[in-house]
Amino acid sequence: MRIGMFFREALRSIRANAAISVAATVTALIAVFILGAFIPSFMYVRSAVDSQKAKVDVDVYIADTASVAQVNSLRDKLNGLRTDGTVAEVTYVSKEDALRIMRERLRDPSVLDELPSNPLPAKFNVRPTDAENADVIVAAVKDDPALDPTEGIVYPESTADRLLTAAKFVQWAGFALIGILLLAAVLLIGNTIRLSIFARRREVEVMRLVGATNWFIRWPFMIEGVICGLVGAVVAVGMLWGIKVGVVDAWAAGADSALTKTGSAAGTIAFPMLTLVLVGAGALLGAIGSGITLRRFLKV
Amino acid sequence: MSDGPDSGRPAFTLVEVPQAPEAPAQDDMAALFSAPVQDGTRRKGDIFRPGPGPMVEFRGVTKTYQGNSRGLDGVSLRIGTGEFVFLVGPSGSGKSTFVRLIIRELRPTEGSVIVGGRDLGELRRGKVPYLRRAIGCVFQDFRLLPDRTAAENVAYALQVTGHKKAEVRRRVPEILSLVGLDGKYDRLPRELSGGEQQRVSIARALVNHPRLLIADEPTGNLDPETSLGIMDLLLRINRTGTTVLVATHDRHTVDRMQMRVIALQEGRVVRDEESSGYHDRTGEVPA
Fold first, then answer.
1. CB contact (8 A) between residue A211 and residue B132
2. Residues 174-203 of A with CB under 8 A from B
3. Crossing angle between the packed helical segments B224-239 and B26-34, to the nearest 10 degrees
4. Chain A residue with minimum CA distance to B155
5. A21, A9, A40, A99: which is closest to A266 by C-alpha?
6. Fold designation for B26-276
7. pLDDT per residue over A200-244, tens digit each?
8. Which pLDDT belongs to residue A255?
9. In this complex, is the C-beta atom of A8 within 8 Å of any C-beta atom belonging to chain B?
10. A208/B161 Cβ within 8 A
């Protein structure tokens, strides 16, 4: 009964202050729209970086002179790293396999026929569970007697470092941006609701005069904020959906899309999930915005 | 200064208070107010302490505003339960300060204000709404919610105190009819005359059965005829046992009613007399 009454009060004030309600709704719409465009982009970039990180392999080359026992001990060492979770996968590539792979890669494989013997060393291809673990793997095997003296260990050190830096940057920049956006949205909605309360200062005064508690006055305003936030969010989600279907999906579906060609495993947030997040954010923005604003009017 | 007659109500003489034509018989009022409220919602969170003490007591109250202007200057007085008191004085004499101290819109710089046995200085801020529910307030500018009808304005005061919908539906027409607003329940304030708006505001002040009714210049915006109707209504409310305090500079009304008069001047009580008029008996203007 009380909740129903608060709702009626909120709807009444939305109707009575149509202009301000529209302003608050549009503010929420813009905030949620920007957030809704940003979140999937951020998630995409992060996931792209992550999928690159997964490609940081460590190649441990084996000397032709190494004995079977030495090679086995090296393999055991690497497998040991797998059990403690540093390494995801260890693949043995024999000299013959290496030559075959080389042959496939070359435009003119016939040059290999000129070779008197197979010059390519065998190797263990080690895929770390995380790019950051490359260093651990290198440290563990760098003095192993079975290592090929010339090739040794090869891994894209600078690439890994750069990727890690980029990933961290994307992560923090993303969080900071989302934080700033949310703060801006709260302040904007709060400001709009302040206008609405300012217009009804007398009304709030009267409510207090007849002995309304602060929460009794606050609830309808908060519900009003939530309704504006929700409506804004729903419209923004609709607009984002239009853009997704009309622009992003069409672009991604293009056969020569760069995305598909690189075979990147990068994905982004699913649309229903995004909708949920955005609608929740809209409601929260409205509630917090009006809640904070009201505090100043309910003193004395 | 004054020791308000705590025992029993002051004897007053009803001098030609004309009944407003639409006002119902006094008996209705008495029946509604003297009977204890029997519904289950009775005075939830009532903060007044029952007792034989005065309804309002000021003990050496001084209120200094910013810039050192004095609202009140060392006022001590008591208003007994069931009294009808006029607070008179020119603008700036401290009438409004006095009223606002009672509903704790202001706090005294010095001294203490005690209402219904509660020292307002010790009242926690969260309790202030409950204080205001126990006090009915009527103002010169009516202070109605402009986008609500007469009935909705009165209903709001009941909703605030957590009354059930059915209870609100029953009591609102009852009280509106009592103040003489039959058939005008659905009018917005701007569709009502000044006197009618003031009646709505009185109905709102009464609907929670306050022990104390404060009216700050209730007739300030009304013509003399309408003023008399409003005063009559306040008097009838008083007869049901409600303490009534009327701040006014409406000399005719005060002279006609011959009630206790407290005169303020520059924040001090310059006169406090039973059964008096606007001026003191020497005919000297207090203002």
1. yes
2. 202-203
3. 40
4. A210
5. A40
6. Rossmann fold (3.40.50)
7. 777 788 888 888 888 888 888 888 889 989 999 999 999 999 988
8. 44
9. no
10. no
Domain architecture of chain A: domains with CATH = 2-52+163-297 (no CATH), 57-155 (3.30.70.3040)
Record: contact B133-A210, CB cut-off 8 A: yes
d(CA B173, CA B67): 47
Q: Tell me: the pLDDT tens digits for B164-182?
A: 889 999 999 999 998 889 9
Beta strands in chain B (DSSP E): 56-64, 70-79, 84-88, 110-115, 118-119, 135-139, 212-216, 243-248, 259-265, 268-276
Q: How far apart are CA A164 and CA A167, in angstroms?
A: 5
For residue B239, which phi and psi values (nearest 5 degrees)?
-65, -20
pLDDT digits (tens, 9 = 90+) for B133-165: 889 999 988 999 888 999 999 999 998 888 888
Distance CA B79, CA B54 (A): 6
| Residue B259 bridge partners (DSSP) | B276
B105 chain-A contacts, CB cut-off 8 A: 300
* Residue A104 tokens, joined: 């496939």
A43-67 pLDDT per residue, tens: 887 777 777 766 778 888 888 888 8
Asked if B113 and B58 touch (Cβ cutoff 8 Å), the reply is yes
ipTM of the complex: 0.73
Distance between CA A177 and CA A180 in Å, rounded? 5
Q: What is the maximal distance between C-alpha atoms in chain B?
A: 55
Q: Choosing among B145, B154, B213, which should be mutated to test the A contact, i.e. which has the most A CBs within 10 A? A: B145
Q: At what angle do helices A157-199 and A214-243 cross, to 10 degrees?
A: 130
Average pLDDT, chain B: 82
Interface test with A, best of B160, B201, B206, B214 (most A CBs within 10 A): B160
